[in-house]
Amino acid sequence: MTTFNGASASLGTALSGLPRCAVLSRGRGGEPRLLVDAPAGSAEIYLFGAHLTAWTPRGGKPVLFLSRQAVFDGATGIRGGVPLCLPWFGAGPQGTSRPRHGWARTMTWRLRSVQTTAEGGAVALLTLEHDSLAVMYEVEVGQTLRLSLSLRNTGSSPRLVEAALHSYLAVHDVTACQVTGLEGAEYTEGSVSGQVQVGPLQVRGPVDRVYRSSGTVRVTDPGGSRTIVVEGLGSPTTVVWNPWSGSAKGMADLADDEFPRFLCVETAAARQDAPVLEPGQTWSLGARLYTESL
């Protein structure tokens, strides 16, 4: 993880020394984005929300789902990819925080640097400072995707923070998938807490579960002939979400027929596992994603 003392580059200006595998351009809605096409993998990152909208390991298929109705207007959170939820999750610990899932996903971040890796990939560093928090986000693209998020309390008082890497995993048919790695974990769904996961999870309807689990999650997708693996790094919480048909119909930025094509597995620190940062304290979480062929 890069420290908070890195060099800066102005938002919206071309960075000097960009590697040949990376380019800044205007994407959908005219929004600035970073395109990476490295020997080990490719990706697309919008500066709005520091939003990773695509990642494909070299020789593989796209791993992240992006709705064909996603909005790119510089104001609305992007539906799909990996939204960043912070400094609170949902409506926050007290249920009163707005906007939903925090301000990080609806603000424009600064792209500080892009560097190549020895493994044939590339790593982008983005930063944001707001509301007495300094945030750094590293996205390392290659055969494996590594996401690293660091928050520092720049205020004068202790601060409770929640965070989630809200990964939309692309699957062939969510009803045929099997989710393992959460067996025995306690979870909350809706207003019901203290439930325990028994056996693998199979999605047969709407699911919105907050697990107290830091274990590796495996989503086996027979139709896609692969397993998508999500390893949390320093994350005590795992969230699994799919809106199903009923809720999907109420989402303008999600087509009615798209809900079977994704499952969200979120690396997080939320609810009773949210950390409290003392003034000047830094805290980090991350995730590592990769695929295995069936």
Automatic annotation (TrEMBL):
It holds the Pfam family Aldose_epim. The keyword Isomerase applies. One of its GO terms (biological process) is carbohydrate metabolic process. Keywords: Isomerase. It comes from the Bacteria. The active site is at H166, E266. Signal peptide: none annotated. InterPro entries: Aldose_1/G6P_1-epimerase, G6P_1-epimerase, Gal_mutarotase_sf_dom, GH-type_carb-bd. GO terms for molecular function: carbohydrate binding; glucose-6-phosphate 1-epimerase activity. It catalyses: alpha-D-glucose 6-phosphate = beta-D-glucose 6-phosphate. GO terms for cellular component: cytoplasm. Its EC number is 5.1.3.15. PANTHER family: APOSPORY-ASSOCIATED PROTEIN C-RELATED, GLUCOSE-6-PHOSPHATE 1-EPIMERASE. Belongs to the glucose-6-phosphate 1-epimerase family. This is Putative glucose-6-phosphate 1-epimerase.
